[in-house]
Write a structure and sequence with these properties.
The protein is mainly α. 65% of the residues lie in helices and 3% in strands. The strands form two sheets. The protein has a two-stranded antiparallel ribbon with strand order 1-3. Strands 2-4 form a two-stranded parallel ribbon. Helix 1 crosses helix 6 and helix 3 packs antiparallel against helix 6.
Amino acid sequence: MNTFTIIRTEMLRQIRSYPFMITLALIIFMGYALVPTSDAGYTILHTGGVRGIYNSAWLSAMATVASATLLWLFGFYLLRSNISTDRQLNIGTLIVPSPYRNGHYLFTKALSNWLLLLMMHLALIFAFMAMQLVRRESIIINVWDYFAPFLFVIVPSFAVLAALTILFDVIPGLKGALGNFIYFFLWAALGAFSLEKYTWADVMGVQFIFSAIIADAKQHVPLADESFGFGYNEIGKLQTFVWDGITWTPDIIQSRLTWFVWAIGLFAVALLIFRRNSLLNRHAPAESKLGNPAVKPLLQQELTPGTMALSPLQGEKRYGLIPHIRVELKLMSKDFPRWWYIVTLVLIAGSLFLPYNELKDWMGLLLVWPIALWSQMATREKRYRMTALVTSSGPPLLQTISIWIAGLLATFALGIGVTLNTIMAGDWDFLLSWVVGMCFVPTLALLSGVISGTKNVFEVIYLLLWYMGPMQYESALDFYGLHLTSKLTWFYFLCTVVLLATALFLKKKQSNA
């Protein structure tokens, strides 16, 4: 099998997946949402307090900034587990004894991830082209203005990202939730470095794009300042100017293409760390039962008709909620190492004995620490390919409710320190918000697991909500009520009910399919 066929197979496997289709749909929607009308009352990309008209150069800059920031996050979580997937599907049993070289194997994975990332950005470019014709501030489409940033900013930037998807998947300690957590802060740090004009870390190209726009904005609008932003900004009347794009000099092109060197370096590190035997699924039996010496004599016995009979099934089928919950709790807790429980006990004790006026300032780690426990809810049956067995072992709604209750019990156990500390302080408003938040998170995890069957979807969503909500002051996404006590409590209670009802409905529909 040649390299082209392998890469094609890898790409088709991702393109046909449900998470990829969701991501592509969000990209197309993003192309619409990021180009509001002039009287919409808000803008997404603004520099110096002004905005360029929606011509090819300006929309290409918007596409580059949006893709460089958002796809660096969502694209990583979408593509980071290709090697782990091979191990879970027992494909490693074919790869390990084959003449398939390690470098060739990792190269095909990295190259397919890179091409998929570029494909998603191209979808965003075509969405912005369509929006340029819809908004009609400039109807002349300049293809070079769209594809020059793609070639010189996105292509080398995504090469680094593709190498990171491989590196995080071969380092043993970074394959799971810890790796997702570390990468989230790496992404936030790289974005912050770009915004703070640390050009040496501007791998995403954000600072490069903004600097070019601000320089031209000052020439067209003398009152323009050096502020810039990408995100929802409510405005009144925003002054516009015509931006003609970036002049691509040899020095600029060379500075952007040097990121290929970083990508090659990261790939080389991954190649040094990668061990071929890591592709073998350790959960699979080391030796087939048919080849077991203890089984062979039984297989060699001659069986004659009538020598064996099955006893009839006695009694009626009974399904108990409590046994299901007990099993779910055991499954939730069995894969964590001893040190994880030690840190958990320290966090619980700290949240109990910490002075109440300092409690909320130190709750950040406690709120994100159980993410690996929540993210496995409703995903194990697909991950271990046990869907048929689990579906036939009991009513699907009973199983789903037992998973949800087990998640609630685990969450309340982890938050017992905060709960008791709040009760002793008599802060009943925050106690109500805290309880609703503890119900909201595992319910969101349950729905994410039912929809996707993978852990990464919830981990990405929760990290974003955690960072933009409880970690910010007076954010509408503060579902725990750390800073907006009781103001949004009933809203998140209603969200919890809707999420649970949706999860039960989808699970019932899946079981009937």
